[in-house]
Fold:
Amino acid sequence: MTASFPPLRRSLVAILRGVRPEMAVAVGRAVFEAGIEAIEVPLNSPDPFTSIENLVLALPGSTLVGAGTVLEADQVDRLHAVGGRLLVSPNIDVAVMERAGHHGMVTMPGVFTPTEALLALRLGASALKFFPAAALGPKGIAAIRAVLPSDTVVGAVGGVSETDFADYAAVGVRTFGLGSSLFAPDMNVETVRARADAAVTAWDEIFGDGRP
Structure:
């Protein structure tokens, strides 16, 4: 059984696509210190499992660290072996979901249609990653949300930045995966920190800062 999506102070996932192991911890700390508690290293990054393990060891245990672009069941086992708890994929795959459930991971499979979204939920998805969100837009996601259980955690990922939060919030979406708007391999840590700060500020202005 996969785990429920955790009650993060801010429902933001930092996507560090292309991060190298030697910079992963510095970037991860900058993102975490800005207020983003979930970090994803896509598996098409250089030596991604080393980066994930380094982040798990360096950041507080409450941090939700894991992998993106998970396509094969054996990758799920490797992710578990290095301490990753978050599994994000661009698709919905039965074998991947079964392995993630075996390890009790938080899962966020990619969906684009009602059929995919309902299948993902049937397979135990913790949250749904509507991807690429920029193609569906808030109206498209809202139309699909109408046929989903009311407690479904819906995330918008792909072509989304803090400038889009308000539009998605208007249709009930409050979970976002931030990729190129937050991080690129050629950025320095200070730039990433500034972008993370901007995203957190924008999220707080719309949704509050997560304090009780």
